[in-house]
């Protein structure tokens, strides 16, 4: 039996979001209905609302979520009703070249639920990143559900579904930060702070946080930064070099998504160092670098997409490490809010004080 639940819809470009009743079909083959317990508010939700992703309004927003599987469709064996899960937006196919070569985080063939959730009048909804979890319940592909320790607080677990995983993964998966490394993180919002926390987890000896806002640098210290640089007043490349005996950092993570900060990252790395781009640029942005400077260095330039994560490997591990007190994911939760408060959460997003607002049910 299809069921009706409350959910947050973005009805049209730049229109305020609103709470509406939506219809969730019973799960079909390969699908699951998940009762959402918590869902973080991410910049991508705001981009959807602004029409910056595509024009397939109305959107069902929300994609950083955790909850309990309520029911599963035919053939679903990976999760069962009652399982506590984190949702991911990259359910991999298992059959493409990337999957078959053991690098599923490069899978191009990811999938979501086939059936559509709708408004009461039958209008089909586009779930943000194929999830749509600002809703009491949502319909996903079973491969979007990853079972983790149910003892963890849902508002903490949900954050691993997007931004926090992107940042931690940029450090531990893409950057391959190792014990004793020096790491610099440029841009210390939620993603950059997660990269700082990831670098600490990986055993980095020096973690240099760079931002233009002193309040962000204070938070970065709590996440594990050993040094901070305000790049509004200090040249970050010189500062990072000075802090690394003139060498530059072994791994520099760019978590802003701008050409000038990428350029800083490029020049702030050790000759054999790695630059990781995790900040998302806009289509108009271009990078201009003297080719001789690229030639004159070894190392590597990488981008990190969803932290190159493998949910089945990384979500349970990070939840366990959090439960053991070895990484503090709760520090990313600034406030918990209700379904009706998302518009205010969008407005506060660029406040220096908010890392994540999380809707709890
Ligand atoms: N130099 C250094 N830091 C900067 C600069 C700059 N020129 N410009 C902005 N910042 C800082 C901001 O002060 C802020 O702390 O970058 C941080 C960006 O943080 P948020 O806006 O909170 O964004 P976040 O969620 O962390 O995402 C960062 O990663 O996933 C992508 O789309 C996301 O591109 C965005 C980036
Ligand atoms: Zn694949
Ligand atoms: Zn997100």
From TrEMBL:
<dbReference type="InterPro" id="IPR011032">
    <property type="entry name" value="GroES-like_sf"/>
</dbReference>
<keyword id="KW-0560">Oxidoreductase</keyword>
<keyword id="KW-0479">Metal-binding</keyword>
<feature type="domain" description="Enoyl reductase (ER)">
    <location>
        <begin position="12"/>
        <end position="359"/>
    </location>
</feature>
<dbReference type="Pfam" id="PF08240">
    <property type="entry name" value="ADH_N"/>
</dbReference>
<dbReference type="InterPro" id="IPR002328">
    <property type="entry name" value="ADH_Zn_CS"/>
</dbReference>
<dbReference type="InterPro" id="IPR020843">
    <property type="entry name" value="ER"/>
</dbReference>
<protein>
    <submittedName>
        <fullName>Oxidoreductase</fullName>
    </submittedName>
</protein>
<dbReference type="InterPro" id="IPR013149">
    <property type="entry name" value="ADH-like_C"/>
</dbReference>
<comment type="similarity">
    <text>Belongs to the zinc-containing alcohol dehydrogenase family.</text>
</comment>
<dbReference type="InterPro" id="IPR017816">
    <property type="entry name" value="MycoS_dep_FDH"/>
</dbReference>
<dbReference type="InterPro" id="IPR013154">
    <property type="entry name" value="ADH-like_N"/>
</dbReference>
<dbReference type="Pfam" id="PF00107">
    <property type="entry name" value="ADH_zinc_N"/>
</dbReference>
<keyword id="KW-0862">Zinc</keyword>
<dbReference type="InterPro" id="IPR036291">
    <property type="entry name" value="NAD(P)-bd_dom_sf"/>
</dbReference>
